[in-house]
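Look over this record before class:
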Amino acid sequence: MPFVPAPNIVMCEWRCTRNAQNIENRLMVDALTAPTPAILQGIATLAWDWWENNHANVIHTEVGLREVVTTDLSVQNGNQYTYAPDTTTVGLMGGFALPNEVSMCVSLRTGVRGRSARGRWYQLSVSDAQLNGTNTMSPAAMSAITTSVNALLTTIDNEGYAPVIVSYQSNGVPRPGGPVYFVITTASIVDPILDSMRRRKPGVGS
């Protein structure tokens, strides 16, 4: 699809490595103003600090955070900032790590119904210490993950920005006038059944 500008939107990417495979999470942030280099740096810094001080607790030790990259999506060649203060920030969850492609889907919800107004956050790792049987995650582990992601939403909001779902299409066609933004209000896990992200399998993704 050709580039479609999203005014005031910053794409935030947590770029990680596990078993020599590049994996990532990403989230869109509405800066509520034109993103300046200082805003890009600020969002990248708070995103790194949240991962290191909060989210690492629910990520296996095999996963290392390489960098956080923020990109201005207002224009096709918008500014970009990379924050990589160290090479030693890794997950803190012990136990036996399940294969790379095993994940848990966190639903990002807004105050609007419909698929266009929802997003997904896939966990970068799952440990056997987080399981409740063979194919399901324990209630305690699900609670810890959603608490962590909700803390990220709160952190972004407290900085004067808004975590959002950016919807470029409706009913399969581009939205007239450009993308629409839906503010994410909460993160939740709908069911305990483990999910998969096949592109995270070694040798399949980037």
Q: What stands out?
A: The chain has a mean pLDDT of 94. Residues 139-158 form the longest helix (20 residues). The CA atoms of residues 47 and 153 lie 10 Å apart.
